[in-house]
Amino acid sequence: MNRLDGRVALVTGAASGIGKATAQRLAEEGAAVLLTDVNEALGATTVEELRATGARVDFLRHDVTSEEDWAAAVAKAVDEFGSLDILVNNAGMGDLATIEETSLADWERTVAIDQTGVFLGMKTAAPHLKASGHGAVVNISSIFGTSGGFGTSPAYHAAKGAVRTLTKNVALHWAAEGVRVNSIHPGFIDTPILDPTRGTPYEQVMIDLTPMGRLGKPSEIAAGVAYLVSDDAAFVTGLELYIDGGYIAR
Fold it and tell me: Residue 194: exposed, middle, or buried by beta-carbon count in 10 A (0-12, 13-18, 19+)?
């Protein structure tokens, strides 16, 4: 399918995992994609891999907590590819601390990346998304933006919950301006972030808690993104799409 021919996407946190899979899928569907990440070495490698398949892609180092970096990223997408039609706010971080163990500095860093970065992305990209005619935003939240999880990671839960509600708020604000805004809530996805859990009881807990009995694939999240930013979802905004193997249905 070439549902995204002629469109330009910016995907944050795209050097690996869900972001990389998303950039690949959007490029396969015809979009030009600017991948951004703080990991320059891995980002460059990923771009070379995608270019080898014929994809129109580039990379920029981008700290999503920085207004200046956001201005530079949006400007690069527009200057290099001609427009900005799609924004995927994927960059994020997590932790495993309890509320008693979470320092103020750790709380503020997690919220800055997982929540404020999403705010800055939509704010900075707004003029270009509105001018697109096909403007679409997907914010990557989490099953833990809706549920209490294991009672740990309070900053992550709070930030992802904020992303869920912020998505709906901006979707309503932009509903008549031609920009759709939706959130995706992944379950336990098999990405490099889970490498430390391989073969441990924690990995088995994640599998056991997923009704479908397995971890999700990054490509399955990417497929959801591709749908939401395409014209197939032209009447879809403010949606929270769970791609979680049934976790939230429990």
Answer: middle
- Residue 179: strand pairing partners: 135
* Core vs surface per residue 87-112: b (16+ CB within 10 A) or e: bbbbbbebbebeeeebeeeebeebbb
Q: CA-to-CA distance for 102 and 96, rounded, in angstroms?
A: 9
- Classify residue 223 as exposed, middle or buried by CB count within 10 Å of its CB (0-12, 13-18, 19+): middle
In 3D space, the residue among 241, 181, 226, 217 whose CA is nearest the CA of residue 2 turns out to be 226
pLDDT digit string (tens) for 87-111? Answer: 999 999 988 899 999 999 999 999 9
Tokens of 146: 């809706």
Could you tell me the strand order of the sheet in which 179-186 lies?
A: 57-61, 32-37, 8-11, 86-89, 135-140, 179-186, 240-243
Sign, Cα dihedral of 146, 149, 151, 156: negative
DSSP SS3 for 149? coil
Cα separation, 134 vs 143, in Å, equals 28
Are 218 and 163 in contact by the 8 Å Cβ rule? The answer is no
Active-site residue, 202 included: no
Q: pLDDT, tens digit, for every residue of 201-247?
A: 889 999 999 999 999 999 999 999 999 999 999 999 999 999 999 99
Number of residues written out for the chain:
250
Active site residue: 156, 202, 227, 242, which one?
Answer: 156
Helices (H) and strands (E) in the chain, counts: 8, 7
